[in-house]
Design brief:
Layout (H helix, E strand, L loop, with lengths): L10 E6 L3 H12 L4 E4 L15 E2 L11 H17 L4 E9 L7 H14 L9 E4 L11 E10 L1 H14 L3 E3 L3 E7 L4 E7 L2 E12 L5 H6 L10 E12 L7 E5 L5 E7 L3 E5 L3 E3 L9 H12 L11 E12 L13 E6 L4 E7 L5 H12 L19 H11 L5 H11 L3 H5 L11 E3 L2 E2 H10 L5 H8 L8 H15 L1
Parallel strand pairs: 1-2, 1-10, 2-7, 4-12, 10-18
Antiparallel strand pairs: 3-6, 4-6, 5-6, 8-9, 9-10, 11-14, 11-15, 11-16, 12-13, 13-14, 17-18, 19-20
InterPro entries: DAO_C (IPR031656), DAO_C_sf (IPR038299), FAD-dep_OxRdtase (IPR006076), FAD/NAD-bd_sf (IPR036188), G3P_DH_FAD-dep (IPR000447)
EC number: 1.1.5.3
Protein name: Aerobic glycerol-3-phosphate dehydrogenase
Length: 489
């Protein structure tokens, strides 16, 4: 049996979970000067944080459940992220067709007015009434509303949090599993397992940010008996060939009181979601046929030409770890978060719930609970976000690397922002960037993702770092996987 190596000096914080909450806490704590180790059993953002609806939003529908504090906080965070991460977060207009059989016009108008009020001081336009102008809609020419929220590349938000944490001194260990932890008065002794085997580390505080696995980790590897319960709710999405024109999204009210989003996705698709299905297992992410039918029906209620199964090019489901507050309907369960601090010995902070939009605020609140000063990231750009005007930045990218095809230049400008030069270097032709894996993905970009963003498989790159999985065929993906395997061997 391989011996377990001796432990070095204790970390200040050992963070379990490489999703948006874990990486945001790692970033803030590292900026505050703490000695940080973050461990993730898979890839960064491999779970819930890459399977969201890709929205940086206040949550208009949360107003119906009187979640005013959550909406106000989320809208304030939306403004911060639009300013500090303009490459991966940008404004997105939403249009809401009015159906008199659902929410009455005055109620919707009042909700949007309140949403505008909570967002005062932000940079986005206010809501307004409009005439619908998309011939694909049954209600074309009818009345509706327009309001603004934000789009986010969810997985890149997680990765860039981790990059900033690492550059501030944190250690990020992916594909590393927490096996057990023994608690003493002033520190934890933790056994971890990675590809090289088991090893031990010590930490003064553990932060349990395992998302859908948080309760399992708390009662299993951490050996605790108390703590909140979480409710696992699967949110599923389908990706279809582009079925609505324009660069705006649609908010589609449903007869059951829910709303479904139809969002322009990449260049060629529409993202439709989401469902809300309570599950027992954090790995139960496979979209069910009933969910597919629900989402198609939700869109077809508004579309002049109905979508069929053959229009679907992809689907995904993510498990939301919501605080179990006893609410019967999944749609009514709070999306707020709860931080539970246990100081019965070495400190343990467990994170329950939360949403993409409020992760930065949650991280600051976590540091406050732990009594850690500093770490304020409100004015700190995420890596690559050191500019203000994306249009001007994209024009500079086109001028410096004119050989890039338009979709490739735009994708890379969004993904890497002002760090795109570290990826493309002094390349003057596409061939300077090495082997072509398809859809503009070249070896030099792959090397960068391996060296600086913890990518270790084709799936890491095509579904989380770039979203190019919708454009590559199986042979190209196999070739990419072989290249990565050789590079990291």
């Amino acid at each position: 049996m391989r011996p377990v190596p001796s432990m070095p000096e204790p970390y200040d914080l050992l963070i379990v979970g490489g999703g948006v909450n874990g990486t945001a806490i790692a970033r803030a704590a590292a900026v505050a000067g703490q000695r940080i180790l973050l461990v993730e059993q898979g890839d960064l953002a491999q779970g819930t944080s890459s399977t969201s609806t890709k929205l940086m939003h206040g949550g208009l529908r949360y107003l119906e459940y009187y979640e005013y504090k959550l909406v106000h906080e989320a809208l304030a965070e939306r403004a911060i992220m639009l300013r500090t991460a303009p490459h991966i977060v940008w404004p997105l207009e939403f249009r809401l067709p009015h159906m008199p059989s659902m929410r009455p016009w005055p109620i919707v108008r009042m909700g949007l007015w309140l949403y505008d009020l909570f967002a005062l001081g932000g940079s986005l336009p206010r809501s307004r009434g409009i005439r619908l102008d998309d011939p694909a809609l049954v209600q074309n020419g009818g009345r509706g509303f327009s309001y603004w929220d934000g789009w986010v590349d969810d997985a890149r938000l997680v990765v860039l949090n981790a990059v900033d944490a690492a550059e501030s001194g944190a250690k990020i260990s992916t594909r590393t599993r927490l096996e057990s932890a023994q608690r003493q008065a002033d520190q934890w002794t933790v056994t971890l397992r990675d590809a090289a085997g088991a090893h031990q580390v010590s930490a003064r505080t553990i932060v349990n940010a395992a998302g859908p696995w948080a309760e399992q980790v708390l009662h299993g590897q951490l050996g605790q008996t108390d703590g909140s319960h979480i409710r696992l709710v699967r949110g599923s999405h389908i990706v279809v060939k582009r079925c609505l024109s324009g660069n705006h999204a649609w908010l589609l009210q449903q007869p059951d009181g829910r709303i479904v989003f139809a969002i322009p996705y990449l260049d060629d698709f529409t993202l439709i979601g989401t469902t809300e299905v309570t599950v027992k297992d954090p790995t139960d992410t496979q979209i069910a046929p009933t969910e597919v039918a629900y989402l198609l029906d939700a869109a077809n209620l508004y579309l002049r030409t109905p979508l069929r199964d053959e229009a679907i090019v992809g689907s995904y489901g993510g498990i939301r770890p919501l605080i179990d507050d006893g609410t019967e309907a999944a749609k009514a369960v709070s999306r707020d978060y709860r931080l539970e601090l246990d100081r019965n010995g070495a400190a343990l902070l467990s994170v329950f719930g939360g949403k993409i939009t409020t992760a930065r605020h949650l991280a600051q609140a976590a540091l406050d609970r732990l009594g850690i000063g500093g770490g304020d990231t409100r004015e700190r750009p995420l890596p690559g976000g050191e500019f203000t005007d994306f249009g001007a930045f994209l024009a500079d990218v086109r001028a410096r690397w004119p050989f890039l095809e338009e979709p490739v230049a735009r994708r890379m400008a969004h993904a890497y922002g002002s760090r795109i030069g570290a990826v493309l270097g002094d390349a003057r032709t596409p061939d300077n960037l090495g082997a072509d894996f398809g859809a503009g993905l070249r070896a030099q970009e792959v090397d960068y993702l391996i060296d600086y963003e913890w990518a270790r498989s084709a799936h890491d790159i095509i579904w989380r770092r770039t979203k190019l999985g919708y454009y590559l065929n199986p042979a190209q993906i196999e070739r990419l996987d072989h290249y990565i395997h050789e590079a990291v061997a």
